Amino acid sequence: MQSPIIAGPPLDIETWKELRLRAIFDYCKWDAHCGDQEVLARFPLILPQSTVDEIAALAEALTSQALQAEEEILSKPNLLACLGIPTAIRDCLPGGAAESGRRDVRVMRFDFHHTTEGWRISEVNADVPGGYVEASGWNALVAAQQTDAVATLDPTQEYANAICEGLPTGSLVALVHATVYSEDRQVMVYLGRELQRRGMRVCLASPRNLCWRDGYATMRADFERGRPDFVVRLSPAEWLPGECDRESWAPWFAGSETPLSSPGAAIILQSKRFPLVWDSLSCGISTWRRLLPETRCPKEVQDVTNGEWVVKPAFGRVGEDVGICGVTNAEEYRRILKAMRDAPNQWVAQRRFNVSPVRTESGDVFPCVGVYTVNGRFAGLYGRAAHVPLVDANALDVAMLIRNDNGGGA
């Protein structure tokens, strides 16, 4: 099946260099290299509006079904162990329906791939998705150079709008992240700028700078005191017990009176083992069943090395530790298989699909289209592309644009 994605012509090198500097300084794209490789692609990827409408609607349906499933799983705590969630966290999750009353903000990014059988998703980043800097800044910068393509919604702005909704001017928003990682810091600095433009005060903090008193988040740092009115987390939920003491991490999962983004319960959907509990649910997940490839516990697969399966850790991110026979480096693949066999209940095997390549002037690439939702509504696109059918930390960040039919077409 022919891909609806096309590659636009590459930017000339001088224009690209200028935009790269603007991405770094205007949009906080500090990780413009991966090792010795530039990561910002010179070419954009372009979709027709009808395709964007299609995958946006699919992402909204996936979000709605996922949140219903999350609530049902919380009411059936026996399912949590199957998801590979650490015991300490399972013990903190509420034993019943999801907490209500808070004005939480939920952000998800679904990774779409156009395959020989149409659109498929490989996963959802439901806990602390990234890519905002690129999906906001690089999309906008490259779109400004085009006559026949435009950027879609800006996910950082959509996220900031959702956080600020209902907050009075001057409210304090704590931006909690693993402060040692520049790729996390850049997201929070950029999001902080957007919040400040909307009249908020912001505080960048580590998880250990936060505790809860009487259910309310409280800063415990020399640089900030008092109660934030909203807390945003970019540090992955499964990392929290290792980053700070219990009084600082447990309330993310239950008991917080302070509104959160994202609450710790998002770890349920973040687990790649989420499909393993579907048959125990009564809620409808028809869109998930249609778009996500068959997923099994590795113990149930006779031979994961026969080329038909992809192996993934339950909580891997950015393509980390994903093993594909014939694609992943052989030595790395052997290491991944050993880790999987040592702890199969922390891994999944997912049926492999064939991504439709897109031709560029520098050769074929295999794109991944990240589709954001904020509180269930479509919120923008994040483009990545690799020269092999595995999108990981070595992949390119690509401007994802919409063909401007009023401009004559791409």
Folded structure, characterized:
Helices cover 28% and strands 25% of the residues. By secondary structure, the chain is of the alpha+beta class. It folds into two domains: 6-64 and 106-266 and 358-407, no CATH class; 294-351, no CATH class. Strands 5, 6, 19, 20, 21 and 22 form a six-stranded antiparallel beta sheet that branches. The chain has a four-stranded mixed beta sheet with strand order 1-4-23-7. Strands 9-8-13-14 form a four-stranded parallel beta sheet, with helices on one face. Helix 1 packs across helix 4 and helix 5 (155-164) crosses helix 6. The two termini are 20 Å apart.
Whole-number tally of structural domains: 2
Q: Report the major sheet.
A: 6 strands, antiparallel
What is the helical fraction, as a range of percent?
Answer: 25-40%
Oligomeric status of the shown chains? single chain
Query: What's the pLDDT, averaged over the residues?
Result: 93
Output the structural class. alpha+beta
How many strand elements?
23
Number of helices: 11
Q: Report the principal-axis shape.
A: globular
Termini, distance in Å? Answer: 20 Å
Low-confidence stretches: none
